[in-house]
Known about the structure:
The complex is a heterotetramer of chains A (256), B (320), C (326) and D (431).
Chain A: H1 2-6, E1 9-20, E2 23-34, E3 38-43, H2 49-57, E4 64-69, E5 72-73, H3 79-85, E6 87-90, H4 102-113, H5 128-140, H6 156-169, E7 174-178, H7 186-203, E8 206-210, H8 214-220, E9 223-228, E10 231-236, H9 238-242, H10 245-252
Helix pairs in contact in A: 4-5, 4-6, 6-7
Chain B: H1 18-57, H2 63-82, H3 89-113, H4 121-143, H5 152-156, E1 159-162, E2 165-168, H6 169-191, H7 193-201, H8 207-212, H9 217-243, H10 249-264, H11 269-289, H12 297-308
Antiparallel strand pairs in B: 1-2
Helix pairs in contact in B: 1-6, 1-9, 1-10, 1-11, 2-3, 2-4, 2-9, 2-10, 3-9, 6-7, 10-11, 10-12
Chain C: H1 14-29, H2 36-61, H3 69-86, H4 93-115, H5 121-140, H6 142-145, E1 158-159, E2 162-163, H7 166-188, H8 191-201, H9 203-208, H10 213-239, H11 249-262, H12 269-286, H13 292-307, H14 311-325
Antiparallel strand pairs in C: 1-2
Amino acid sequence: MSNNEQKPLLITADKLRKYYGEVKPVNDISLEIAQGQVLTLVGANGAGKTTLLNLLTGLIRPDRGEIRLLGEKITGVPPDQRAKRGIVKTFQLEHVFDDMTVFDNVRTACFSSAGKHYSLFKDIEDENEINERTGALIELFDLTGVRDAFVRNLGHGYKKVIDIAMCFAMKPKILLVDEPTSGVGEEEKYKIMDLLMNQIEANNLAAIIVEHDLHLVKELSKETIVMCDGEFIARGTPDHVFSQEKVIEILVGKGF
Amino acid sequence: MAQTIINVVPEGTPPVGHIFESQQMLSTFLSYIFNALPMVSYIIMLSFSLNFILYISGRVSLTFAGIYLVGAYVTVSVGTYFLGQNFSLLSFIAILLAVGLLGAAISIVVYATFERFLKTDVHRMIATSSLLMVFSGIIKIQWGTTPVTYSAPFLKMGISEVLGNIVPNYYFFMFGFSLILMLALAYFLFRTAWGLRFRATSLDGDRTMAQVCGVNQNIVTAITFAISGMLAAIAGGLYAPIAGASYGIEGNALLLAALTIIVGGVGSIGGAVLTAFIIGIARVITAVEMPLFELAIPFIIASAVLVVRPYGIWGKEFKH
Amino acid sequence: MNTALSMTVPSVGRRTWITTLIFTAIVVVLPFFISGYQRTLLQKGLLWIPSVFGVYILYSLLRQVHFGQSIFIGLGSYITAFMAGKYSVTNELMILLPLALVVSIVVAYVLGIFIMKRTGFYFAVMGIAVTMVFWSLVYKARTITGGSDGISHIKNPSLFTVPLSDMGLYYFCLIVSVGIIVLMLRVLNSSFSLQLRAIAGDLEKAESIGIPVKRMQRLAFTIAGANAGITGVLLAFSYNYVSPSVFEWGYGANFVQSAIIGGVTSFAGPVVGAFGFINLEFFISTWFANLWEIIIGLTIAIIVVTVGEKGVTGIVQTLFSKIRCK
Amino acid sequence: MLVKRAGSFIVCLTVAVFMMGAMVAGAADQKAKIPTDPIKIGFVVPLSGVAATLSPNAGINAELAAEYINKYEGGILGRQVKPIIYDEKNAQTAVELFGKLTEDDKVEAILGCLSSSSGLAVAPKVEAQWKIPTLLLESTTMALFTKVIPNAKYVYRIGPDDVMQSIAHVTAVLKDKPDVKTIAIGAPDYEWGHDVVKRFQEIMGKFKPDVKFVYTFFHPFGEAGPNFAAYITNVMQNKPDVYVGYSWGSDGVAWHNQAEAMGLFKAVPLVFDVFSGTAKGEMAREGVLAETRAGNGTFPPYILGYPNSKFTPMIVEKTGVLPTYGMDIHMLTGLLYLKKAYEKAYDLTGQYPTFEMVAKTLDGLSVVGPDGISSMINHQSTAPGMAVGRLHKEKETWVMKDLILVPDYLRIVPPWMTVEQFIDTLDKVQK
């Protein structure tokens, strides 16, 4: 927790709550993240990790509690506004625009980040600044080879990378990464993770990464939170957290 | 001559007592329901014809309206040919069932030869609605454009008097028939093993999972289309004695069915029945009290519901 | 490549502009070689283009089927009928066009708020439902709208107080439609269109990269409505008569059918579709009227099944590319 | 009083006819040659769309009407009639088709337009642009000639007009039930429906001011699969002495079915149905008072004059049904008018008649149509065969008994009077 005092607080969530009838995916959770702080979030399926991220991005409205970004209340702000302010999320399953080329995918995000939603009469090819930026991002994420390919024809790994590239096009302050490696082969997994972590470090971003692979988690982050039934049950360095009996019980099961 | 509900109270009538007044209101209210019955039953069947395919297989198929048209015309022709002006309940029901089978056959054939090649909802909607034009064109060539009618069942069944309201018995027959069909469908869906398979592939269930568990998707889809076609054809056959079959009836059928889904929600039998009552009774009341809104009222109801509850009053959200 | 599902809008290149120029040249010269009623047909085709482009934008970018164009055509027509016919306030195009534009934009925006709540089948049915509400109210409000008889004797229009002859009106319509074609080509090639396609592709992702989904959908709906409003005004002037049938959903469906026949994967689609549909309608009603429904219905059904949204232009393009390959 | 007025009207007519005869005799010397090729006549009739439900087989009947003229009447000026038949889809298409007929096909007259909107859209353009003799069949009410084209030259209309028919209806109702006190009246909800109801009430008020209209309703027009139970319930609750109904087409079929099932025909002492028949007489009910109009399947083909005795069998042979109300019959009437107009114009001038000449001669003509004698007065053909009688089924056909014929002078607005003036004179008839 000492980190928080040195760097300014980026996002604070206060007593967030979301119930679906009897199911309580998020139950009075409070969370503070500072600039440049990278958290990993682990927990069994249905522990409420995705719900928490969705609450932060605004896809879901909380029943109770409030969220602040840099001290400003953003609880009722719609997701697109939050994305513009810097809370950007990647998706667990690939969410990309299948019917567009890779370049257009990234370009869309660049346009959005530049706020050019309603420029109705300007040719996209004439928007040099944005096209250059898109080109730079494509290079940065090593997508030059598939620049003009249609996304629908690409593999899983590529789609993940495009998804992440689009997030970076938004110039995020905090990145919410929902299982970046699910459904990706072992080799690609590390490649994607490297890419992601390098960029996060390079831009000094805050991030919450939801991850199942505990080995990865240990490598990735200095701080891990374990979630169960909508509550945080442990927090600290991975080594410390994973040595707790309670946590092992939840993550691995009682049998062991 | 019937007792009346009395709209205009003649002068000099002694003041009516409290009980009589409420009875009178009850009677008026009942008259609204009775007069709405034919429309209610035909909306129930048509809307579920569309709803069933949408719910079970997630497809939008508007062919049912064409089958409705065929059902109406065939019932009139067959009825006139075999029964003429005579009428017997059993033979009429037999005709209806035969027409239902015909509808089922048409539905399966159209699905197998045409609809299954359509890939997206938007394609299905446009292609099947243009198919309606083909149906209507064929009907025009065969039967011409003037209305045809086989009214014997409607006229020969007689009338009942309920609390001063005159109601043709055929209204009860039609409503009962459609209700029995819906109940049978509900029983099939929720109480039988086959129904379980249907529900497993529906929007509520998980199609991939169901296939893994050994549900034959092709058979389920074929039966779904057959049931839908059957409902539509029987709806046409049941309504034809009342209103006659005429060129162009499929448009109205299509609209009412679609609106009912918007109001009642996808896959809800109860929703379809209640919505049918709401729309039917609203039409009857506005026809007499506010003619300006008579034609618009179903659409106004649907729009209002969509604003308040985007997934219908009894519906829930499905992700296609 | 999975062609059936591909709906990518091509980018507007030099060839598109040249084609537009050739098209314009043809329609400018054509009236000198054809008879009066053929000019009327041509004018009708030109006037349909804006409305079909409205459907096209919603279809090719947002993948929604918009049956409600007749609302705005009706509004435009009835505004014209009231101002230049029934109450004879003015027949000045420079007043009526902006007025119809404003009215249809306002109405489209308000309707867009709730019609756009749902997509797909529901959007289509809601379009029809709202159209029918307008139709039945206009039909029933006899004292104001003239009921089923509609409003006749709409005066001929004037432009900057100069009365327009039939030929003058034709060229005015020509300028308006070509102007709208140019405008729409720009819109289709702007960042706006890119983001609409993103919304159609994946709504959640679009939202999560900061695209204001609802507002952009509404804007697209409003653009479609505004286009149809213009069509309405000029159609009323072309035929000097309006009746409530312009509000019927079947009329709005004509524009969807046109778009499908023309094809929505090419910019030429709406233009080809509008002229194609009108000529098909006209010649069927002169040659084999009894088969009207069957021919139109089968045409569309076969186009959808075989080439999807590509329509006639798609077929022609494929043929050309095959010839070129050989 | 009125009888006197009508008498003078007839005298005027006679004098006019004699004068014309004298002119013909004078001009008979030098005559231009008549072309021998067929004369093209354009038909714009509904073959698809909503209006098609109201006129089945319109295309075939147009052909048959032309065939009749060629076979039994010797064509127009000896020229064979060649019909060019198009589908009147909607108002816009109708305008385009009129353009094609005049500009491309070069027809010499046009008949057609069933729906009001087509007629209203087309008529001003004919007057201003195409200037071709045009006979609208059924389309539009009198609003056409009072509001839209007040100084009509080329456009004529064949079909009953609301004043004529309402007078006939009121007379018939009063004759059948002189002590009528309460009336319920219903019509389809479109302009013509509203007009006829208004006229009926107005004229009934002139004849018998103390009659009360207890229930007036307008049901949706041409709605597919209509349900009229609410209206029927209300009619029966109001217990009228007379019910007057104007429902027709598919509405009519549904209305009669539902009214019969609910017992309206038994509960109301007198039912007067204007449209009592369709092709097969589905609407006809025993004992109901009905109007003959034309054909209608409600009276046998031999009743009214010779064209009907030949024309109706032709239609029955080809289509299997009797000609229905309106268009089917009026197409032949229209052709007969044209034949007469062409021949008269030729006789008068000695030249092959121009469109203007034909259009001018059309006014004031009388022909014996399939439905009786009708005359063109003020661009409007008098409603022919306007008789009312009781329906009765004889073997397989419906026939009318106790015909009440309303004399022409009672129901035709003379050219020198406005409709209002004429209606004002009506109350004097009663006295």
